[in-house]
Amino acid sequence: MIEMGKYYRTRSGSKAYVVGGSPFPPPYWCKDEVYGFIDGLGGVFTWKQLTGRCKGAESLDLVKEWQDLKQGILWVNIYPDPQRNTVHHTEVEALKAAGPECILSAPLIWREKE
Fold first, then answer.
1. How many helices (H) and strands (E) does the chain have?
2. Closest Cα partner for 75 from 41, 108, 30?
3. Is the separation of the CB atoms in 45 and 60 below 8 Å?
4. Predicted pLDDT of residue 28
5. Rounded-to-integer distance, Cα 21 and Cα 34, Å
6. Positive or negative CA dihedral for 38, 41, 43, 48?
7. CA-CA distance, 51 to 64, in Å (whole number)?
8. pTM over cut 0.85
């Protein structure tokens, strides 16, 4: 059941926020529908409260509650010999550890898999 005030993931991967349902009885609004917004898309969207189905667009169905993925930055020192490449937690650590043959110290952005 879709709950008001929560974020959900759409079938297409977008982040959606369910605002609420109508305080007015049918026919102004269907009793079992909720409405909200989708990040990056204009307009108001309507879903069935029990199933999360979106009117007219299956790719915008709500499939599960949204969870932000963990992400971070590591730093890698790159050398002509790839076996010498090293990974560090901070840029300062990477620069201190870089030897004279280091070609580049670069950020490496990682993100938890879904």
1. 1, 8
2. 108
3. yes
4. 55
5. 4
6. negative
7. 11
8. no
